[in-house]
Design goal:
homodimer, alpha+beta, Chorismate lyase, 2 domains, six-stranded antiparallel β-sheet, DNA-binding, transcription (chains A, B), DNA-binding transcription factor activity (chains A, B), transcription regulation (chains A, B), Chorismate_lyase_/UTRA_dom_sf (chains A, B)
DNA sequence: CAGTGGTCTAGACCACTGG
DNA sequence: CAGTGGTCTAGACCACTGG
């Protein structure tokens, strides 16, 4: 209640702040349902559209999660990843990783992929798109490219596990280091459907390269993570 | 009117896609104004609120930038940072960095800061909050903490330049490496005002520690970057 | 079938800016 | 002062889910 004339900030931000405080105070715990948008409108004396705007703020902060048509729920905290293998990261965090193969194919590389893998004209790639899950909750969509010439027969063998393990075992490749560019994006409709989040949700995109001991790029990948579930730990040496 | 029954996706996403295509095709170049929300509503035969929803999608993608009450404009592409000194990164990218000191003070550390800097009870910190700009465009807000005992007299000397350079020159500290946690956030009202973006815009938060050659943490910082202007390059060794 | 969030309408008033 | 985006209202219909 802003009370006498003091209200400086919009009502939807005041409502969002009230609900955020309740969540941070654990009055509302993860998985608890929030009141419906119609109920919140009544409670705060605003229209449904204004209550909805408040919920949208909390959703983009990752504090709540809409699950139509069941309702809106308090979200779980984020998982902290390092740049590397999803499988290894999940294991490090004591979670159960899983992969669902969406598709695998030998294709022409797009220009970025060709440049990253240093392919000559006409060379093809083995491409995989996989949904990555932890405890059966979808977290990320990985799209991975290997030079086809370097990975014969891999298409039939990619399954639910780690592609890195597979590449190491099949071809004796020693993976040495990775680099990545991280940026904040808005996920497209298809990705949101796969990740079980609403259209237009925020994500973090990693454009990632993995190198062998000789410094050759052996993997080029684009991963999109749910922004509400993932954070990334990184390190940098400053001795230039 | 969806027309001949084929419309699968909501109108606001269709409108956003149309405008996004024009931007990517450079039909609309950076700094060009978009039609106003009222005009777009007329052009696409929808209400202003629906046109507005389309613009909001493009805004959170970083494709456009609202500047009330002047209008909505096509945004510039993002700047690619590495984890490290804002000043050095700007120089590496051929940009002109600048800092505006918002405040500097000796204060009690919060629990996270105390733990990071490994301070004993009662030890204080020197805290700085600075707005970081490139070519006079605000990009990030840095909040930096040093142990007060290790940085005598620094409060008066912090100016427009690099804090790292200052620490190195004043105390002979050798900065060796950094680590950081990156996550996607929604910026609060005050930060948005400082960064000249609208309330509720997305940001990337870095929680950052810098260590000396002996492995002691000498700096703890929380930086928030505009998600529409910044991307981060990171590397990781895989030889565990 | 009741209730949810998703989408959408057709208005309204506001603060603020530039000309 | 005209025009902008910011906020807000009081409704509407939809697809979808769980009981």
């Amino acid at each position: 209640m802003p009370g006498p004339g003091g209200a400086r900030s919009p009502r939807y931000l005041t409502i969002a702040a009230t609900l955020r405080d309740r969540i941070l105070a654990r009055e509302l715990a993860p998985h608890d349902p929030l009141p419906s948008e119609r109920e919140l409108g009544e409670q705060f004396g605003v229209s449904r559209m204004t209550a909805r705007q408040a919920i949208t703020v909390l959703e983009s902060e990752g504090h709540v999660c809409r699950r139509p048509p069941r309702g809106t729920f308090v979200a779980e905290p984020r998982v902290r990843f390092r740049i590397g293998s999803f499988t290894e990261e999940a294991n490090r965090l004591g979670r159960r990783p899983r992969a669902e193969l969406l598709w695998a194919a030998e294709t022409e590389p797009d220009p970025d992929t060709r440049a990253a893998l240093d392919l000559h004209d006409g060379a093809t790639v083995h491409a995989f798109r996989r949904l990555r899950l932890m405890e059966d909750e979808p977290i990320a969509i990985e799209t991975t490219y290997f030079a086809a010439a370097a990975t014969p027969g891999i298409l039939d063998k990619a399954d639910e596990g780690s592609l890195w393990t597979l590449v190491t075992e099949l071809y004796g490749t020693e993976l040495h280091h990775s680099d990545a560019v991280l940026e904040s994006i808005v996920l497209d409709e298809k990705s949101c459907a796969l990740l079980h989040i609403r259209a237009g949700s925020p994500g973090i995109m990693l454009t990632r390269r993995t190198y062998d001991a000789a410094g050759a790029c052996v993997e080029y990948a684009r991963d999109v993570y749910r922004a509400d579930r993932a954070a990334f730990e990184v390190t940098a040496s400053l001795t230039s």
